[in-house]
Amino acid sequence: MAILLRDCGSSDPDHYSAALKDFGLSCLSIPILRVIPKPITPSLPDPLLYQALVITSANSIRHLPPNASLWLTHFNRFYTVGPSTSRSLLARHPSANVLCPPSSSGATLAEFIAKDTQHPSPRVLFICGEPHRPELAEILSANNIQVDKLIVYESEILDGVGDKIREACGNRQGVWLCIFSPAGARAVLSQLRSDINQFRIAVIGQTTAAVFDDIVPIVVATSPTPEGFKQAIQTALISPEGFEQAIETALI
């Protein structure tokens, strides 16, 4: 059995459920986070101040204000993490010049940006939620790239999530918890830390994996897609050594 843990209103788990059901896993989606848009005051930043816009989650695009579609067209370059983020961006700005490294995390995206940047005094705008992990901004700053942040949403853990997960599992052993964001990972740890070792954990990428900090063995999707999740869990289920092999692959 696999339990997909996402924010309220997300339709993506349906695609992941379909992929996991392909090889016999029953799936259940449980909302774990409430995403709340944050007002942007006094106005959206001037795009002409920046060489690029950096986006690491689809929620950042979804929670921009309605008038942001025109604003987006004034950026020359966009750096993103994952196909879901890129799709959300292109839905609002179909002609966007999107650079999305394969299998990227916030940290690897920052390294990519540092190598790709040619401007003598680079400055980028990072749109994100609260809380968010610091690696991207830290790596960019260490490479003398100025990072301005625009917080467009915040995440809250829904009440009673831990009890809902335990109830859904019943007496089953080895249930997979599929986690799609660092905020989701923090929510799982806050709700299930005392019995986290009863579950198998699969996560969308390295940034989400870093939240667990070796607290529990995890596997990481081979790519931030339904097929990537499927491949990682399949590797862990194929043989007695599969789970360890999937973990080793995730750490490369």
From TrEMBL:
GO terms for molecular function: uroporphyrinogen-III synthase activity. SUPFAM superfamilies: HemD-like. GO terms for cellular component: cytosol. Pfam families: HEM4. It comes from the Eukaryota. GO terms for biological process: protoporphyrinogen IX biosynthetic process; uroporphyrinogen III biosynthetic process. Residues 14-228 form the Tetrapyrrole biosynthesis uroporphyrinogen III synthase domain. This is Tetrapyrrole biosynthesis uroporphyrinogen III synthase domain-containing protein.
